[in-house]
Amino acid sequence: MTGPDGAGVRFAETGAPWWPVLIGPVIAVGGLLLDRLAPGGATPWAWVVIGLVLFLPIALVVRARRRLLAVRVTREELVQGDESVPIARIAGARPADGSGRYGIRPFGDHPTVPRHLGVVVVTLDDGTRRAAWARDAEGLHAALERVLAERAPAPSSGSSPSPMEGA
Are both 31 and 61 inside the same structural domain? Predict the structure, then answer.
C-alpha cells in the first residue's frame, strides 16, 4: 500500500469499521417487511423514523472513532488520531511492560490510552517517552522497528578511507 504522497504505509488501522452504520437501516427494512405481513397494514413513517434514530448517532460515533482512533505508520511519519509525529523524531520503540501503569502521555491528544488498545512505548529524540497505541500493538511495534531500522545508516564495510589516511 502507498499513501497519497507515495510513502509506503507500513502499518494501518482504521479507528472503527463502517458496518455498524447499517444497523438502523436493516432494522427499519426488517420492521417494515414484518409490519406489511401483519393484519392492519404498515406504518412506514414509523419505521423510517426508527431507522434514522438508530442510523444518525451510530454514524456519528463511527465517524468520530475512525478519525480519532486511526493509526498509520509510513517511512516519514507516525499518525495517531489527530497527532502526527515525524519518524525522524523517534529514537526508539519498545513494547509496554504489561503492568498497565505507564505514567506517560499517549499520542493522539488523548488523556489516557483508549480502552482495549495495546501500547508501544516510543522514545523521542529529546528523551521524552510517549505511548503509541493500536489494536495490534505487536504489529505496530514491528512496523516501527522496521521503519527505524530502514532509517538507521548501514554499517560501513571498511572501504571508506579514515580521516587520518590523507594526512
Answer: yes
